Amino acid sequence: MRILHVxxxxxxxxxxxxxxxxxxxxxxQAAGHQVAVATATPSGAPEDEPECAPLPVVALSxxxxxxxxxxxxSLAGAAFAVERLVTPMPWELPIGRSLAPVLxxxxxxxxxxxxxxxxxxAWRAVHRAVHADVPVVLTVxxxxxxxxxxxxxxxxxxxxxxxGGLVVTAVSEAAAVPARRVAAGRVPVRVVSNGIDLARWxxxxxxxxxGAEERVHVVAVGRLAPRKEPVRLLRxxxxxxxxxxxxxxIVGEGPAxxxxxxxLRRHRMDGWVRLTGRLDRSGVRAVLAGxxxxxxxxxxxxxxxxxxxxxxxxxxxxARAGGxxxxxxxxxxxxxxxxxxxxxxxxLARLAGDAGxxxxxxxxxxxxxxxxxxWPAVLDDFAACYELAAAKTSLAHL
Length: 398
Known about the structure:
Keywords: Glycosyltransferase, Transferase. The chain has 13 helices and 14 strands. By secondary structure, the protein is an alpha/beta fold. An 8-stranded parallel beta sheet has the order 3-4-2-1-5-6-7-8, with helices on both faces. A 6-stranded parallel beta sheet has the order 11-10-9-12-13-14, with helices on both faces. Helix 4 (about 145-160) crosses helix 5 (about 175-185) and helix 7 packs across helix 11 (about 340-355). The model is unreliable at about 45-75 (pLDDT under 50).
């Protein structure tokens, strides 16, 4: 099958969508499909954007675009092509050029569009593909707020005005709820989890042993951006540390780092909270190997890939109830969930103060696998969505 993935943002920028699109494309290519990626992200990104080293890709131009510069050596050698339909914009905003030349040149069997809360390049791609009678699968990677719901309601009205093969998926049950309300039965909405390589996180370094007098080690991993609520994370750590001795390691980079550093100095937390900056996956695995608890307090987490990685590494997870993490973390089994700031604080304090509870959850996490998140399951689920979109396209022509 010829599959064209479309995403506003892609490597070398780093985030959940960027990494997931790349790994899905690689998994499908390995399974024998012909895969390409179209994006509005240039081959270079601001230094504060990436949180891990970019994976190798080959940058190609659209058929109607000027001849591109030769790809840099660090971007060479991928098994699939990346069409960078970049329009020069302030702050490298991912607006992008028309997808039409790519559709004409590649003739995909399905266009798989990946969208966040606001994704103008992805939105235009859905419109273009639907009107070209190409089956479309739209994956929702975010929790829609008021603005996003209004925007998608208008978009769905336009996309479904023309009979065609549009299928929507969401990365979690939490993300699917607003999508189903907005779709209002006009298109099917299914849940297809993000995928992950279990062996990569199960075969990491052996867990570090903590001394009896050492503080409980709390780890958080993610982009240091306002929407991830990094200062709320620091407030939560400060609240718990006043009652239970803990230390914390926060992995990631982003625009909120300077604000976090000021908060740590102001509240004299820099002696027990460490900001590592960007780490590659081996570095993240090494940090998780010495973790006692993983903390993911963001309220609007559509999936929580870092929390899933921690769960696979055997680390108990504390996260927000009602978010995407709840798809693979049940409170009291893989970790503890809280619906409010006080509940999250109490959950972290409980785990930090109860070694037996931590050990029991860690053993369970190491012994069980979240089957829906494995690549074979994810590839099968998307194959079924592609078939449904193709069938809907065929019916529209009868």
